[in-house]
Description:
Layout: E1 3-5, E2 11-13, H1 16-29, H2 34-52, E3 57-59, H3 60-74, H4 76-90
Parallel strand pairs: 1-3
Antiparallel strand pairs: 1-2
Amino acid sequence: MTHVIKRGGRKQTFMPSKIKSAIKGAAKEAGFSSAKVEDLVKEVGNGVIDFFGKKRVVKAVDIRKSILGRLQRRAKSVASAWKKFERKKSGKF
């Protein structure tokens, strides 16, 4: 079983659904069609899930970097939407 170490040091069970949901939300925000959203979730999400799901412990920040790097290469507008959401969430918008 894989565990994720959050920024504050808290440990959480690795949940692939959270990765897929985050990518889906960013893709929708970027204006992608439903079909393109699903393709991107499969392409980016499954790659990240396969890679990190094999490890015992991973850092949340490493998962984030991997997702953003893949999004930057495949769909820059989705990566931008992701970053915009993060800024808004942190109050640095």
